[in-house]
Structures are given as C-alpha cells and as structure tokens.
Amino acid sequence: MTQNIEIEFKNMLTRIEYESLLKYFKIDKNQIFSQENHYFDTPDFALKSKDSALRIRKKGGAYEMTLKQPASVGLLETNQIIGEEEASTAIHHGRLPTGIIQRLIEDYQISFSTIEYFGSLITERVEFNYKQGLLVLDHSIYLSEEDYELEYEVENYQVGEKNFLEFLKQFKIPTRKTENKIRRFYNKKYEQTNCD
User: What CATH number has the domain spanning 2-189?
Assistant: First the structure.
C-alpha cells in the first residue's frame, strides 16, 4: 500500500492542439503507451458524492487499485497492488479485493459489497519531464466519448501553476475548466444512467 498527494494541473485540448504539441515535442509513436482504467462506484454514486473515486488501472502487465480522496491541496491517492485474477474478478463479477481501500471506503459508511463496475477508459499517453514537473499528453476514449488533455504533475503547487500558465500562454491554448478523467467518466455514466 502506498499513499501520495497528487498535485497536477489540467487543461482540455482540441485534437489540433494535441497533435501540434506532439509535433512540437517531436513525439514518436513508440513513446505513446496505453493505460486501461476501470471505474467503480455504488449504483447511487456514493463515492462521487464524497468527491472520491475508485479505479483499477492496468499499466503494462501490472494492476493497481486506487482510491482518490480530496486533500487540502490536490488529491490523496491510496494505491493497492492487486493480481490479475483479483482485477478480473472485480471487473467481471463485481467482487473487489479486500485491504486498506476497503477500510477507507467503509470509513465513509459505504458498504464495500454495494460497489459495482461502471466501465473502462482507455488512454493513449505520452509523458516527459518539463520544468520541474512531468508533462502528460492524453487521448482518452470512454463511454462513446473521446477527448484530449494536457496534465502537468508537480511537487510544488506555486511553481507548477506558474509554469503551467506560461506553457498555455506560449502555445496559445485557452485556459479551460477541466475535470479529472474519473469525474468526466462519472459525469458521462451518470448522464447515460439517468437517460435510460
């Protein structure tokens, strides 16, 4: 189990902006890797109502279950390494592995057994070091949606914010209100659930 505070700045991109940044930074196709995120919540979105989110991520051959919770700055991420069989059971049968994340969710008075699989989000990602942080370009596909995003992960909020805003200005990218992938996924799922 690991815990860390995630400080990142985000901005949605148009496809043209995304492609021009790939070109500017001379990103080769073999630098882009795929990440598969699987999201979970209760049928009434109890985790979402606590501004929290639960995912299982497949990255390479490894699986990690992550609970994201609000923190005073950024998000608190609690990560639990799980096996392929545990991930498969969670995704296909709705039975999540026990451990620290179960205890944290139950601290919210949410029954772990009520959590269901909501679906997956596939991200084609490239990341590289940029001015005391990690710059990330993402192309994501989920629930019949497709979007492009710029992320900048940092350890120092003030320095990160300054560098991020300068980056947007340099590339003439408008500042856009951007929710994280989990929230975008949940919002689309919520919209689809309530349209049925």
Answer: 2.40.320.10
